[in-house]
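Per reviewer request, we include the raw input and output of the structure prediction for the construct analysed in the revised manuscript.
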Amino acid sequence: MTLVAPSHRPTLQEELKGLPSRSRWVAIAILALLALAAAVTLLRGSTEDGTRTVVREPIAFNLRYPDAMQRVKDDNLFHLQREGLDEFIVEPLALPEYRGDVGGLLPVEGSRQVEALKQRFPQLELVEEGKVRINRAAGYSLVFRASRSPRLYGRLVLLPEPVPGSRRGVKLLMLATPEGGADKARDVGTNGLLKTPYRSFRFGTEGP
């Protein structure tokens, strides 16, 4: 019974059969090397680069970050920096009492956070805001221009702990310059090295 349609012939097996014995074995060896190279490339692509870290208290989370970023020891829950280029800061988030879904509270809390940011960045201009999801956690993102001269852009993500009724969470503050990969405000966390800790952030101690 014919299993291969005529339009798909000749098959690789048929092509190899037409070769002299020595050439056939050389072709098979080359194909095997190509398959091995493809497997290695796929494996490398699926390997997580950088350093994985776990923070357990006061709220558990884990993430990965590139080796080029340096961890800063300060009062923040977690702080990464490339001086003069970019920063990734994890701060605690404490929400007021609320009823219903926490998503309805986040835009209000976002407005309060913008006012707080203006104390740090007097030239702050809000570019966009809206819902965001990081892995399985729903949050709220505020994208802003912190300064025009020198150019500095930022993103603040309010990320409540994905537990019904919880008032705890984290604030992910990301700052980047054009040299750090942010040519515009929306690039913060989506381009450059900040993308790794931002996209890999997870509550709890277990990674993906």
